[in-house]
Amino acid sequence: MPQLRFRGDPSAERVRGDPLPSRPGVHRVPGDLRASEGDVTTVMTTSVKSATTDTAPHASGWHRLRVTEVERLSGEAVAIRLDVPDRLAGVFAHRAGQHVAVRHLPDGDGGTELRRSYSVCLPPAERSGLRLVVKRLGPGGFAEYATTRLAAGDSLELAPPTGGFALADHPGAHHVLVAGGSGITPLLSMAAAALRDDPRCRVSLVYANRTAASVLLADELADLKDAYVDRFFVLHVLSQETREAELLSGRIDKGRLTKLLALLGAEPDDDGFFYLCGPRGLVDSVREALTCWGADPARVRFELFSTGDGPAETIDGDVQGRPGRITARLAGRTTVAAMGPDDRVVLDAVLRARPETPYSCRDGLCGTCRAKVVSGSVRMDRQYALGEAELAGGYTLACRARPESDEVGLDFDA
């Protein structure tokens, strides 16, 4: 049975009321994790907008990349490394917390396209490249293919990084992260970026899993703890195994979260920012608990990971969308598509005219189909990917948007 005491987990000392330990002795620092602390690194800060210049490949659309390594993390999870050629370096520049959509058409699968979104998750010691962590939650889909058949030398098609799940620009902040399962993937990158780029900040992580065996990237989290022993704190909470400290065994409810936050020295003040990622049930529960605790909702950022255990959400109201004409700009080219009688959302119409249009979840979760409404109007039901600033700026998700005017113009390149 895996050990329940995680390297870098201060839980036992904290529950007894002792201060967070400064572990004695020499701490192994992998690679050059701290070599440029405070410096701004290229991979985390290069603007994606720079990829839309005339001299670079267009930032929209799909790009075929070669798989260089498939590392087995557990029986259900792998880490996939992909080669990004120099000509696409600007296109795949990303910020910590962003994700990419992946699509693949396996040979012999009867033409069934596999598609999913995954967070870019580099090891903390690395500053460039592209790595995705894929965990299989059930049969079928891209995750089953990736964890059972994908191998070095294969190729995948990826859309450029997207997503607004990002660190607050607040020097000296206390960044409090709450992850569930594979929700650790964007948060690990965000923790490493915060610690590296802001020597005054603190980062605390509450990581919820069912069992010790299901914890992803435990060694990389411990390496990060070794490198920033006084500024990075981790609490592992297991719902189906017993930890030495009772507080760390069970589901994260309001009472448990309040006590965990106290152990981490978190306060609902001007320096505290909260980042949540994982299944919808966990994220919704933690958001509600933080509100009751006194956290400003404006300081709580979250990203939902679809669990893959249920059907896509239905669109509220009528099943059919309004007839009309959709003008879509994608990869520098403009196409006109008509809403058909069975089309529910604008993505349905656009895909007939432009099959390469980026999308992934169809649930309003990932933001891959994000576009700016440049003419006409659309109505969008529930969505979880766009922030208030993006909505105010005229952005929508094609997988959730229905026309409210006879003509609608969308710019997927904006």
From TrEMBL:
The keyword Hydrolase does not apply. Coiled coil: none annotated. One of its GO terms (molecular function) is metal ion binding. Keywords: 2Fe-2S, FAD, Flavoprotein, Iron, Iron-sulfur, Metal-binding, Oxidoreductase. Its cofactor is FAD. Residues 324-414 form the 2Fe-2S ferredoxin-type domain. Residues 1-17 have a biased composition (Basic and acidic residues). Residues 60-168 form the FAD-binding FR-type domain. Signal peptide: none annotated. SUPFAM superfamilies: 2Fe-2S ferredoxin-like (SSF54292), Ferredoxin reductase-like, C-terminal NADP-linked domain (SSF52343), Riboflavin synthase domain-like (SSF63380). It comes from the Bacteria. Pfam families: FAD_binding_6, Fer2, NAD_binding_1. Residues 1-27 are annotated as: Disordered. This is AntL. It comes from Streptomyces blastmyceticus. The gene is antL.
